[in-house]
Design goal:
With 180 residues, the chain is an alpha/beta fold. It is built from 6 helices and 7 strands. Strands 4-3-2-1-5-6-7 form a 7-stranded parallel β-sheet, sandwiched between helices. It is globular. The two termini are 16 Å apart. The model has no long low-confidence stretch (mean pLDDT 94).
Amino acid sequence: MRVAVYCSSSPSIDPEFVDLAFNVGVAIANEGWELVWGGGAISMMGAVARGVRSVGGITIGVIPERLVNLEFQDTESTELHYVTDMRARKGKIEEISDAFITLPGGIGTLEEFFEIWVGRYLGFHSKPIAVCDPTGAYAPLRESLHHLTQLQFMKPGQEHLVEWCSDISSAIEACRPAQS
């Protein structure tokens, strides 16, 4: 099973978020799952991959050629796919992943999260989506989404396509394939 992780590449965030990413990587690898991520070696992006590899796991990066130097591609990645642009990156990550975890991040992380969520809602995939937010970074976002639902901009049930988790073990659990 392959789990995609969306997270920050910002070098100026609090180290607790970098630690969170590392620990998510360890948890993914401890399940025997592979990591799919943006292929960067810095900040949370690098930490999640290092976490996977620290316990012998497999990392599969997908990075646009233009960002190779900006995000300092992770040359220790088990596999690294080079793509032309961000749209190709998101498409490749969706294609080769079986589940998705979103960690705290900025507009790039949110763009990836919303795109995968909309894809599930529209039936382009039925893969699990979890948000792992132990610090409450996304609490105002959740409040805004609830408000949009009350205003009927979001349809009932859309919120339930995402599992909002306050710890790593819940996020891992949310990614498990349904038992048949």
